[in-house]
Specification:
By secondary structure, the protein is α+β, with helices and mostly antiparallel strands. It has 24 helices and 33 strands. The chain is globular and about 85 Å long. The structure holds zinc ion.
């Protein structure tokens, strides 16, 4: 059977660059032929085709069956139900007692006992379209399983090697299908070839088009959650992260030393450098062009090579020059897919060799890291952080769950305290003590900073999680009283025979309950003014379900939805009257019917796929209302009147012709709601709502006025950094009487990325959110960019005819973890129709 497979493989292969698995491996590997090679299972040789995830799974499972050195487990599932695998390779003796070795390793890390084995984790292709990593993984696994060399035997006796063969299986398969289906019998390296230019969306991201290599800290997705659990279970000494890059040479870390996060220790840089000598030696011996200590950085802790650095591990980023087909005409000459795979095999093995030889130093480093963290905690100048729930226990609970997943210790506050003018109450606040093992990571998750050694960032410069969740927090100079026995908050359950049910809007899950009610055909009214009932104060946006205005025989449905809401932690207050204690009565027109929605989301070419994915994820996973997703080219064939909302995220919309622009404006005039973010907001400013027509053209970007004259060539990078906003946190003032801002306090943090400025509205009542005078809270924004934002609107919602256009200068759904700003977007969707005309009489 095996021979037949190989024979077939040779017949169908396009293999001009085929290489047997053995030829990727050291000459002295002495491979045991009873352990099946990748090609014996795949039917083709590595480098011939892009491996699909099921084939990768099947091969590694076979390896685990045939080799006593290999064990395999499923750690989770992707959205598309692909298994997330963890392959562990070690000696047969170690495999028999993995759990006790793991425990002694964790104890050793704390106590400094060096006897426990070294733990090295090799991670491949978190970006699914950087597939040389996942195609290298089976070769590395086979080598470790099959080699009879003394070196490999010794290595496995002393090392536990964890292989994560595909960090992003959904993206890997999306890309493998793309690449394989565009593969010619004879490969084409021409860069204009279709195979080198993926259609939208690329395989880089996961199912919802998120970059999983930014999700190690926010943990929005199941892939990251499964991985972080295993990371902390194993606490590897070294962890690798294999990518592809647009640069011509192979990159390995360290990155730019001045761009390492200040909380990462100098010893980490030294260990990374020590390991780098092994990569350099290996690549030099093969004549591979490489670079290090340039271009990339180790700043944002949400990346796979940086997160380990604040957890006592050494994270190493590898970047192999990009290749989408079997051959690619790089500027520096053609590159084959086999070479790309080979390079990742080389650096996987150089990592193992380096880690093995530096084993004692790595173990000492890990213990030392936690000691250094303790010393820093002792000098911190404060004892704890306190985080309040901001009257939304669900949002706070979600943030505390993220801390828990990162092994950050916290306790419930048990007596009231005041700090920084804020009151924190028992049952509504948590305390994170400074004296704990994970102080470093806790600090990285909470702190803000505005001064940096280097103003260039590969990714965002700020991510403070309490700010992203818009929760009150403070540093405490004394540890307050805490408890671990505080019962979880219980939601008010609905009473069956009530006349009115009220759902406070500031609850994180209230919008999904609203959607459930709308789906059930329930008439829901939202408060446009604050009121109170039975001593409970309700703010604007609170949802009111009146039994008396529903269709007959619907009471069962209503109660079912409300009961489900309560089991999910959403409080539903029940009343036997329409009479309010203060504020307008429930029967007044200050409560407005929320209409059902049917949103259209523009996706595809021209639309930024991350932003489209964030909108999709928000609606599908969190609101329970999947948007109808359509491309810009289809838009002109669609009857917009079939939809209530048009959602346009950041992207290039200049391709939308004049006729369609007129149609969209007319649809808004008839009652449509257009929600446009960043460049789409700028585009929306070109729409003409005047009946006589107007002459506006879409503007594409916000260029900064330049009075700097002649500059030094070498200052280009710094000047560029001053003009771009890579991602920082800014403060904004909120008009919470405006439906877009219902449920918010007077001031809130926003995430600012990009330089979009909104054209001011002529209507003084249409700007519910604007930047403060001096808005920078955390991260880097160049001085001139900061000045131009000062006091400017961040969100504008303008009525045009019967409809509405909401413009966002920033993405309120950034990476799915800005739970604090997502409500602005959700409010625009559900409460957009409630916004009244606000034109003052002349
Ligand atoms: Zn990458």
């Amino acid at each position: 059977m095996r021979l037949l497979t190989i024979a077939l493989g040779l017949l169908v292969s396009s293999a001009s660059f085929a290489m047997s698995s053995a030829s990727y491996l050291p000459a002295d590997a002495d491979l045991d032929t009873s352990i099946p090679s990748p090609e014996s299972q795949l039917g083709w040789e590595p480098g011939d085709w892009r491996i699909h995830h099921p084939a990768l799974v099947q091969y590694l499972q076979t390896l685990a069956e045939k080799s006593d050195r290999v064990s395999i487990k499923e750690t989770g599932r992707t959205y598309e139900q692909r298994p997330l695998l963890q392959v562990i390779i070690s000696s047969e003796e170690n495999q028999a007692k993995l759990e006790s070795l793991r425990e002694s390793h964790l104890k050793g890390a704390a106590s400094g006992d060096l006897k426990a084995p070294l733990v090295v984790w090799l991670g491949y292709s978190v970006h699914g379209d950087e597939a040389s990593g996942s195609n290298a993984a089976p070769i590395v696994a086979w080598y470790l399983a099959a080699s009879r060399s003394e070196y490999v035997k010794e290595l496995l006796k002393n090392t536990i090697i964890i292989i994560d063969p595909s960090l992003n299986p959904d993206g890997l398969d999306r890309f493998s299908s793309w690449s394989n289906s565009n593969q010619s019998l004879t490969s084409v390296g021409d860069r204009n070839g279709r195979i080198h230019n993926q259609d939208w969306p690329p395989g880089r991201t996961n199912h919802y088009l998120f970059d999983l290599n930014r999700d190690w800290l926010p943990l929005v997705h199941p892939e990251s959650r499964a991985r972080i659990t295993e990371f902390h279970r194993w606490l590897p000494h070294v962890i690798t992260d294999h990518h592809e890059t647009g640069h011509d040479g192979y990159f390995f870390q360290p990155g730019v030393p001045t761009r390492q996060h200040p909380l990462t220790t100098p010893e980490n840089l030294e260990m990374t450098r020590a390991l780098a000598t092994y990569h350099a030696k290996s690549l030099d011996s093969a004549g591979v062009m490489f670079f290090s200590e340039d271009t990339y950085d180790d700043f944002y802790y949400g990346k796979g090579s940086t997160y380990p650095d604040i957890n006592g591990s050494i994270g190493i980023l590898f970047e192999q020059p990009r290749i989408n087909g079997l051959v690619y005409n790089r500027v520096s000459g053609p590159l084959t897919f086999s070479e790309a795979i080979h390079n990742h095999v080389r650096t996987s093995l150089s990592t193992l060799e380096g880690a093995y030889e530096l084993s004692a130093e790595l173990k000492k480093y890990q213990t030392g890291f936690f000691q250094t963290t303790q010393q820093r905690a002792a000098r911190a100048g404060f004892q704890a952080w306190v985080i309040g729930d901001g009257n939304d226990s669900a949002r706070a609970g979600e943030l505390m769950d993220i801390f828990n997943r990162h092994q950050v210790e916290y306790h419930a506050l048990s007596s009231e305290i005041t700090s920084g003018g804020q009151v924190f109450k028992p049952g509504h606040a948590w305390v994170i003590p400074v004296k704990q093992r994970q102080f470093g990571l806790a600090q990285a998750m909470i702190e803000t900073r505005t001064t940096f050694a280097d103003n260039t960032f590969y990714d965002v410069s700020a991510w403070s999680l309490p700010m992203a969740y818009n929760l009150p927090y403070a540093k405490l100079s004394r540890l307050p009283a805490t408890t671990d026995n505080s019962p979880p908050p219980t939601a008010h359950a609905p009473e069956q025979n009530a006349v009115a049910w009220v759902i406070p809007w500031q609850q994180m899950h209230a919008p999904s309950v609203l959607q459930d009610l709308l789906d059930a055909g329930v008439r829901v009214r939202a408060a446009t003014k604050p009121f109170s009932m039975g001593g409970v104060a309700f703010s604007e946006g609170s949802l009111v379900v009146l039994a008396g205005i529903q269709d007959e025989n619907r009471s069962g449905d209503i109660l079912e939805v409300l009961q489900q809401a309560a089991t999910r932690g959403v409080s539903v207050h029940s009343y036997n009257t329409h009479q309010t204690g203060s504020g307008p009565g429930l029967g007044t027109s200050h409560f407005k019917i929320v209409p059902a929605i049917k949103p259209l989301l523009i996706v595809g070419d021209g639309v930024r796929s991350y932003d489209a994915g964030e909108a999709w994820h928000q609606m599908d996973q969190r609101l329970g209302v999947p948007p109808v997703m359509t491309s810009m080219t289809r838009l002109k064939n669609i009857n917009l009147n079939d939809y209530t909302h048009l959602l346009m995220v950041n992207g290039r919309y200049a391709g939308i012709g004049k006729k369609l622009r007129q149609d969209i404006a007319a649809w808004v005039g008839d009652g449509g709601i257009l929600i446009a973010t960043q460049d789409a907001a700028t585009w929306a400013e070109s729409l003409c709502f005047e009946s006589g027509g107007c002459d506006k053209k879409p503007v594409e970007e916000n260029t900064m006025e330049d009075e700097s004259g002649i500059m030094a060539y070498a200052d280009f990078d710094d000047q560029k950094a001053q003009r771009t906003i890579g991602g920082a946190i800014v403060s904004a003032l909120v008009d919470s009487t405006h439906p877009v801002a219902f449920g918010y306090n007077k001031e809130m943090p926003l995430f600012r990325r990009g330089t979009t400025l909104l054209q001011a509205s002529e209507n003084p009542f249409a700007s519910p959110v604007r930047y403060t005078e001096d808005p920078l809270v955390s991260g880097y924004i160049g001085e001139q960019r900061l000045t131009e934002m000062s006091n400017q609107p961040a969100v504008i919602a303008e009525r045009h005819g019967k409809g509405l256009v909401v413009r966002f200068a920033n993405n309120p759904l950034f990476r799915g973890f800005w739970r604090g700003t997502e409500r602005l977007w959700v409010n625009s969707i559900y409460f957009g129709p409630l916004i009244g005309t606000t034109e003052l009489p002349q």
